[in-house]
Write a structure and sequence with these properties.
Elements lengths: L1 H46 L33 H12 L29 H12 L8 E5 L2 E2 L2 H4 L5 E3 L8 E3 L17 E5 L5 E11 L5 H5 L6 E6 L6 E8 L2
Length: 251
């Protein structure tokens, strides 16, 4: 009986040894197969030659793409790689200094195809453009009067330019009918020039002002408050009123 027990124990030990040996062989075989699979996968991973994942070819005539951007920073705690990359780029890129023109103003880049601005400051350029579009200021007009006589109504009715020395007037009055060449007196404005000749009033004069009167009004009242060296007078066309124009020697 003792021998039977010993044989049974020996059989169990042998079976356990064989089992361990078989398991070891299986583990070694699995490791070899795993290493062989890794060796087969790695070359494909390096070349990118996976079925359905190859890079697209550039279109015919298209230039080759340039080098891609470097690897971005690792994703932050939130796990959002895109937002972490944008924040990192914004923090890493230094702010470009603002170029300033005269007076510290930041120049504005012109749009493509925009016309170049005119030389000079904006205000000066705008003023020049405005002046170019405005009509020129009217030049002073010059009229010539030949004084034919000294008198009053009778001489005027002869269609002459007449010097009238009226009592109470502040200055001699030179008058004529509007139908006898004196109509321009109705349009005279300050700054216009008048050349007088004859009857002691020869000279160059400039218009300084005007006033309306009426027939029969005294010269004193009609000229009160005015200042002049000589005055011109003619009648209006639409009524009997008269226009008085004051003259002073031209500078």
């Amino acid at each position: 009986m003792g021998r039977g027990v010993a044989r049974a124990r020996l059989s169990r030990a042998a079976a356990a040894h064989l089992t361990r040996g078989a398991l070891g062989w299986l583990l070694r075989a699995a490791c070899v197969a795993l290493l062989a699979g890794i060796a087969w996968i790695l070359p494909s991973a390096v070349t990118g030659d996976f079925t359905g994942s190859s890079l697209p070819m550039p279109a015919a005539g298209a230039s080759a793409p340039g080098p891609g951007p470097g690897p971005g920073p690792a994703p932050g705690p939130s796990g959002s790689a895109g937002s972490a990359s944008s924040a990192g780029d914004a923090a890493a890129a230094p702010a470009a200094p603002a170029a300033s023109g005269p007076g510290g103003a930041v120049p504005v880049a012109a749009a493509p195809g925009a016309a170049a601005p005119a030389s000079g400051s904006g205000a000066a350029g705008s003023g020049a453009a405005l002046a170019a579009t405005q009509p020129p200021a009217p030049q002073p007009r010059t009229h010539r009067i030949d004084i034919a006589s000294t008198g009053h109504q009778a001489e005027i009715d002869r269609c002459e330019w007449v010097r009238m020395n009226l009592e109470g007037s502040i200055a001699p009055i030179v008058g004529a009918h509007n139908t006898c060449g004196a109509a321009f007196v109705l349009d005279l404005v300050p700054g216009d020039r008048v050349e007088l000749s004859g009857q002691g009033l020869t000279g160059n004069f400039v218009v300084t002002g005007s006033r309306d009167g009426y027939p029969g009004q005294s010269a004193r009242v009609a000229t009160a408050g005015l200042s002049a060296s000589v005055m011109l007078q003619t009648c209006y066309f639409h009524n009997d009123d008269v226009r008085l124009v004051t003259l002073d020697p031209a500078p």
